[in-house]
Design brief:
11 helices; Beta-lactamase; single chain; globular; alpha+beta; about 450 residues
Amino acid sequence: MSYEFSITGKKRLFKCIKQFIIFNSSFIILLSSCSIEKQISKSARADVLNTKALQAAHVGISIFDPSANKYLYNYQADKYFVPASNTKIPTCYAAMKYLGDSLVAALVLENDTAILITPTGDPTLLHPEFKIQPLINLLKKEKRQIYINDDNWQDEALGSGWSWNDYDQSYMAERSPLPVYGNILEWTQEVNETNKPPLVYSSPETNWEVSFSDNEKARTFSVTRSIDKNYYTITLGVEKKRTITIPFVTNRVQSALELIKDTIFKEINKIELKKILIPGHGFTNSLKKINSQPTDSLLKPMMHRSDNFFAEQSLLMVSNERLGVMNDAKLIDTILKSDFKDLPQKPRWVDGSGLSRYNLFTPQDFIAILNKMKNEFGMDRIKVIFPTGGEGTISSYYKKDNGYIYAKTGTLSGVVAFSGFLYTKKGKLLIFSTLVNNHQASATDVRRAIEKFLQRVRNKY
């Protein structure tokens, strides 16, 4: 017996088969998706949440697949955490977007007899890592009177919520409108057969006040600074050579002008804005920008070694670029209302570096910011700026994942943060954020737990 289907019957059959295939494909995808989420959840519990180092800690984890525009895993990802140096991620975003290809060292106006400099907060000025110094070269050649005006500085030397008793630590250099030498002094003691007592000197050299401690039992060379002025107390040690770094008091631009004088061999006089407008001081020519360094040559060390000073000054430079003044609070408010207006949770963001415990972000916030970075600037640029396994602050971690993970660390007492990009072994790009607060273990134990978890995600997804 044979049967013949009508055209209508065939269409119905094909439609049923098509619906069956679509249904089963969707069902398989759903099962696969659920399986992936379950696998990640299982790994998170085994490698992080249930480990001894993290059982008493507060933990937030978020993993996002940007190609599918979906979260693969969230654990307390909408909760707020102190992010430490993960705060440099939104700072880096702002700098990548608004500082252009090249940093602006200063804005310059001129007339026949004088030039007027407006500083921009550029942290590369006379910094030993940056050998080319366009602004210094210009000032050395200048024959006219040089003036400087810093009315665009509307902030404080120390950031909101910074620990005051760390004021003389190298990682907490003051912020300023005209930073020089990284706003720190290097003090060195040298001992040899011909110089007794030891030779002590600073780089750069200064004429600031110095006294020597009479502690004869001291065995370690040390230098301390008064909290509010450039007065240094030196204690001699037994080391043949030892160098330590201490931030100096910037006094807005005053300390910088004293140090620059020894380099350009001429005075720079500070002038008030209202005096610029009086007869004889008219600067009628157009404003000129003096560029210094490629922007990414600043952002790379900022992210690789987690340089607080570079981060703080970068945010101030963005503020000057966007608002015409250097003020963290005003700039952050502007960014939160524009670029970051669609973040999943509104963060509390108070400084550029993450030194402040007032900062509060969620893991999902970092996912959103990192995704914006990827979409707006591309992974090729990100791979230059962010450290990968075996580099920078992760030089001892993710060595097998070199070239497959690009992320920023964050560390304070009781805080370990790690957020960035991860390429899986199947070639999938994921964005992740792990924030740990209030742990009582060693930071190394916490980092190793996170490393094990992320490596398992990389291997399985």
